[in-house]
Amino acid sequence: MIKEILEIRTPSDLVVNRDVLDKISKADSEYVLSQNPVIVTDARSSAFRAFGIAKQLPNSKTVLLMDGTAIESTYTALTEMFFQEIPLLIIAVYQKGEDFSLGYLERCCDVLNAVREDDAEDGFPFEEHRFKPTVLPVILNQKTEKTVDYGYILDELDSFLSSDDILFCYNPELKKEYSYEIKSVSRRYKYGALSKYMGYSLVSPKRCLLLITPDIIDIDINIFNNRYLSDKVKIIVFGTENYDEMKTWLESNGFEIRLADKKNFSRQADEMLNQAEGPSVIFVDKDKD
To answer: Given 5, 146, 173, 249, which residue has the most CB atoms within 10 angstroms?
Structure first.
């Protein structure tokens, strides 16, 4: 379906928010990647990147393909496009059942009627505005909620945590119950997950941990530069993508950094919880036994 829409639009420049590749079909994803797009992790950054391209190349037919549930995070960029009269097509992809109420965007965008996968046989007639962003919501039939399998991490934490502890966990695949409380953070709320955890950990009488994937740090990394950090902030990152860059930034902001794998995770977690004197982060090399 995405392929057909892009073939109609024939973009000169295609910017892709990486999250959307997990939502669309394999065939559509392969087609998108074959168009040599600019792929950006953060939805906010992807909107500004597309804005910059469209502004620099006024006659370009720039398209932003993104996860629709993150479009609210692009409001600043869309508003700036509106004031500068920059035309841009945003294809906002939703899975069946996801909320696509976009009335608030009508202040700065031309919001088109949603296109559903069931309508594919009727074609995709749409007309873009010439002087402001245009949003085309696309509703897919299949709902494929991809969760994160944190492997042994949740089991190992059972040795250290109790019912008095809370683990904030991004989009987990939960296969059983644990002795500690797990608060799941869904994909919809990935933007701001770090900020919310830090705020909660500062005021909660309970010990609070956060278990996330590296991309969550990528999209909210500036939150680590704040005056309210304390030794109550304990974060486990499942994966080591961009580890060197993250380590440098976190250490410059007073974090104690640990690198763990399956063999030594228990020891590293025990030391972080019971010995670390300041805010701490454990990066877990999930590919190393």
So the answer is: 5
